[in-house]
């Protein structure tokens, strides 16, 4: 990277890639540019490129990995390809921002994180929540001690997705934990910043053995707890979270994973997420601007990971989701 | 009971009895009358009686049980006396409204419920939440099918009570499940109206082995779940609950166990709880009027239990709290 403009290669021309690129249009001109797009169908890649100002389109991810104009690759394909594409891009010398979950299990995740380290390249799991200004304020608030000792975290993510293909199919690395449940897990990980000493789980599986919903109890060494709820079996619900200390609380209303508002001890804080140049597919996707911005700044500073979602935290979340799946009996072919 | 005025004997002159009697002052004249009060100290009983218009005071619960003017006894003593006093009053031919928990375990509860049946007397566990108009509307809403299939219930009750004597002391039947956790359990029981097929628990105990907090996952045969959170280790928090169906939701904001407000599919419903003639010790205690009213109406109709909190539901809640304590390792001397 020779200029201050981060040149993006985009893997996958689906909904999430659209939202990511549209979110980047809300950032100052000259900071980010989509320079190449790869999709399984060349036509999709071209169409996507036209939309976001990229002149280069590929029908192969490998071709994109060899494009010398690409500084960093955003991986927005289906979950089962995340590890393979991350390894491919890192091996080709590219920085990587990979959609969550960065892999299907800890074994896969380790192989990616090790390669990133070995290649001395930037790698970040796109746990976009962590880069929201309100999440940064939550971290600062906890660090300030104003909550006292944190004793309890609750979070609920429940929306009607159990019948969506990527969720219900074992062959696609399905299940709700890896899609929405992990947002509740990452919040607990951010708050406690350590592994729980005990993980207790129950849930409901579909006929392919993929989890349609579950509840996860995390207990930490100081006695703090997190009680997490996720489900793909309900209609759209109020997905909120709370962080309760001995002295004060933080309440994050719907949508806790991409919040525009939260109540702190000092009062309500708001942060409006902007609209992008092109319509978003998902809620508050404009907030993907924050992870793009974090990635750019980290890379400009020569960092190999993002402080808001470090490799250690990717491993922490994945260790927990591995254990959740183990207790529920959710098994992928690659496990 | 020969008149339409229910004549109450009050066991215990403490905070909760005060609130119950003050709540009854909000009901129409001539429906309820406190006719006798018993406390360990005669002076306390007299003082309490003066406050609530009772001319008879006893320093013995047994003496109260023999008072021919008493139709029904409200038991507002500490938890460890609930079974013994319920048995005493039933054996003396009195109807009983006993504070929750009605006993320390299922064995104790069964002995009371069996005696009530044998004596053909009214017995009700004072799970006052159930009698709130908003709870009645919740039941009706679920029965109407407007939520679709209920797939998820969440409830949180977390307030700083871990160091209160009745909570921390094993000899007093302590622990937070029996004091506040049971409110989250009774909500799940009301919504699903059946026993869960699996109960999964974790929590934190104090040095006497009493639970300072915990998380309870209930799984029902249709795949519905409840994720319940209770803690005595935090500051005062937003204690809310939600009921999520496949078609619609009900949200009960703080204080879910004695609600003045809830959001139904058709909109927000409010129900203001009145102030009593004397100040209350606890939140929304004016709402104890509803259980007094339910008890009176049931007795006038010749019923032996209250539909809103039936014997079956007392047993259901107690079966779950027994299992929660078993999994946590919370043991009482009477277990």
TrEMBL record, chains A, B:
InterPro entries: Gfo/Idh/MocA-like_OxRdtase_N, Gfo/Idh/MocA_domain, GFO_IDH_MocA-like_dom, NAD(P)-bd_dom_sf. Residues 6-124 form the Gfo/Idh/MocA-like oxidoreductase N-terminal domain. GO terms for molecular function: D-xylose 1-dehydrogenase (NADP+) activity; nucleotide binding; trans-1,2-dihydrobenzene-1,2-diol dehydrogenase activity. Pfam families: GFO_IDH_MocA, GFO_IDH_MocA_C3. The keyword Oxidoreductase applies. It catalyses: D-xylose + NADP(+) = D-xylono-1,5-lactone + NADPH + H(+); (1R,2R)-1,2-dihydrobenzene-1,2-diol + NADP(+) = catechol + NADPH + H(+). Keywords: Oxidoreductase. Residues 135-251 form the GFO/IDH/MocA-like oxidoreductase domain. Its EC number is 1.1.1.179, 1.3.1.20. Gene3D superfamilies: Dihydrodipicolinate Reductase, domain 2 (3.30.360.10), NAD(P)-binding Rossmann-like Domain (3.40.50.720). The keyword Oxidoreductase applies. Belongs to the Gfo/Idh/MocA family. This is Trans-1,2-dihydrobenzene-1,2-diol dehydrogenase. It comes from Mizuhopecten yessoensis.
């Amino acid at each position: 990277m020779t200029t201050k403009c981060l040149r993006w290669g985009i893997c996958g021309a689906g909904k999430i890639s659209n939202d990511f690129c549209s979110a980047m249009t809300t950032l100052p001109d000259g900071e980010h540019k989509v320079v190449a797009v790869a999709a399984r169908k060349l036509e999709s890649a071209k169409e996507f490129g036209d939309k976001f100002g990229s002149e280069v389109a590929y029908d192969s991810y490998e071709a994109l990995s060899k494009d010398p104009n690409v500084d960093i690759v955003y991986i927005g394909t289906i979950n089962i390809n995340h590890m393979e594409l991350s390894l491919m891009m890192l091996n080709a010398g590219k920085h990587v921002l990979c959609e969550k979950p960065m892999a299907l299990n800890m074994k896969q995740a380790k192989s990616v994180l090790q390669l990133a380290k070995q290649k001395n390249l930037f790698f970040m799991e796109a746990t976009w929540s962590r880069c929201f200004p309100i999440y940064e304020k939550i971290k600062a608030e906890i660090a300030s001690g104003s909550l006292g000792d944190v004793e309890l975290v609750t979070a609920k993510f429940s929306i009607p997705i159990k019948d969506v293909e990527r969720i219900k199919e074992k062959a696609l690395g399905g299940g709700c934990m890896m899609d929405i449940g992990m947002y509740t897990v990452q919040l607990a990980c951010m708050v406690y910043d350590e592994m729980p000493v005990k993980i207790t789980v129950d849930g409901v599986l579909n006929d392919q053995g993929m989890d349609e919903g579950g509840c996860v109890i995390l207990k930490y060494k100081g006695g703090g707890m997190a009680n997490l709820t996720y489900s793909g079996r309900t209609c759209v619900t109020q997905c909120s979270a709370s962080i309760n200390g001995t002295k004060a609380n933080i309440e994050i209303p719907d949508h806790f994973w991409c919040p525009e508002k939260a109540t702190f001890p000092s009062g309500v804080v708001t942060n409006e997420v902007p609209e992008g140049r092109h319509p978003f597919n998902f809620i508050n996707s404009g907030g993907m601007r924050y992870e793009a911005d974090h990635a750019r700044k980290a890379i400009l500073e020569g960092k190999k990971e993002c402080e808001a979602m470090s490799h250690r935290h990717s491993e922490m979340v994945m260790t927990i989701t591995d254990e959740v799946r183990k207790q529920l009996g959710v098994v992928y072919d690659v496990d």
